[in-house]
Structure formats: structure tokens, C-alpha cells
Structure prediction request, 182 residues.
Amino acid sequence: MEEQWASIIKQIGEDPSRPGLVDTPKRAAAAFAFLTRGYTQSVDEVVNDALFPSDSSEMVLVQNVELYSLCEHHLLPFIGRCHVAYIPTGRVLGLSKVARLVDVFARRLQIQESLTTQIAETIMDVTGAEGVGVIIEARHMCMMMRGVEKQNSVMKTSAMLGSFRSSQATRDEFLQLLKLQS
Ligand SMILES: Nc1nc2c(ncn2[C@@H]2O[C@H](COP(=O)(O)OP(=O)(O)OP(=O)(O)O)[C@@H](O)[C@H]2O)c(=O)[nH]1
Ligand SMILES: [Zn+2]
Prediction:
């Protein structure tokens, strides 16, 4: 990847051998590897068996999980927050693991809709929940720094599975909890 970054730097009309840029291909390669490290992670490793028995069958909401991803069309960041809710059936997931699972999928090349669905399906699989709801609100640099150059639009996407899809009351409870904490 370092060679490719050096070549890109050259192609934009810069001199990759000037002092300020000498180490840039190496840094950029390391940064890009970090931003896409989700490809090297597996769900099982990340969850690390942090599932705990619980007789709670009430909604669990983890709100405002920061999210940094890369849009698969322009390789530019989209940045925002993710809200994850589920209704457990006998076991709950370690709190930090919810945020870690968001990152497993955010740290890949994504469109926001697929990212939202992948997070919801994974939480459902891992917990065996009765239902899962995921909402992502994000700003896309490809719409802000270039292209249409709109600074204030926010994309909101949701994925509702199980009881979050079938029950209006469950969806309403989710939206109500979100309002309480924001
Ligand atoms: N649905 C969706 N679209 C996205 C996402 N990220 C970027 N895009 C859009 O992907 C589209 C790519 O459109 P193209 O016409 O192929 O590319 P482009 O000429 O660079 O488009 P502009 O951004 O309009 O300049 C654009 O409309 C982007 O806004 C995303 O997460 N979800
Ligand atoms: Zn884009």
C-alpha cells in the first residue's frame, strides 16, 4: 500500500520525496489499515463469549455510539452515531461488545444502509434476541467536502428486526427511550 500511496501523491502533482512527504506513504498506509481493520476481525473474537445470563426481558438501549466509516463510493469518511437496542431472551451482551460490534462493520468500506443492517443482524445472531433495532445518523464527507457540497444534511437509516419490526409498541418504546437520553 505504501508504494500505491507514493504513486497517488505523485499523480496529484506533488513530490513524494520532499521532506514533509517522505514518511507520508508509510503513515497513510498504516492509517488506511486502521480505518479498514474490520476486515481482520471476526464477530466471535470480538464478542469473546461476553454473554451473561439474565432474566430481564426489557429493552436494552446503547445510545450514541460514535461511528467512523468510509463510504465505498469515494473512500471518504462518513461520521456519526449509532443507537442499538434489543430485547433479550435469557442472556445479555457485554455492554462494550455492542460498541465493538458497531466498529467491526464500520471499519470497512460501506454504504450506510448496509452497515445498519449488518450491525442489526449480528446483534440478533449473537444474542438470540426477540428483536433488534439499529439507527444510524451520519454526515458524509463525500457530500460535504466535494460533489453537491451540502453541509447540513444528515442521513438517518434504520434496521428493525423481530419484534422491532412486528410490533408498533416496541418501535415506539425504542424511539421514546432515544428521546429521553438525547
Ligand atoms: N445510498 C447511499 N448513497 C451513498 C452513500 N455514500 C455515498 N453515497 C452516494 O453514492 C452516489 C454515487 O453516485 P455517482 O453518480 O456514481 O458518483 P458521483 O459522480 O461522485 O456523485 P456525486 O456525489 O453526486 O458527485 C452519490 O449519490 C453519493 O451521495 C451511502 O452510504 N448510501
Ligand atoms: Zn461517498
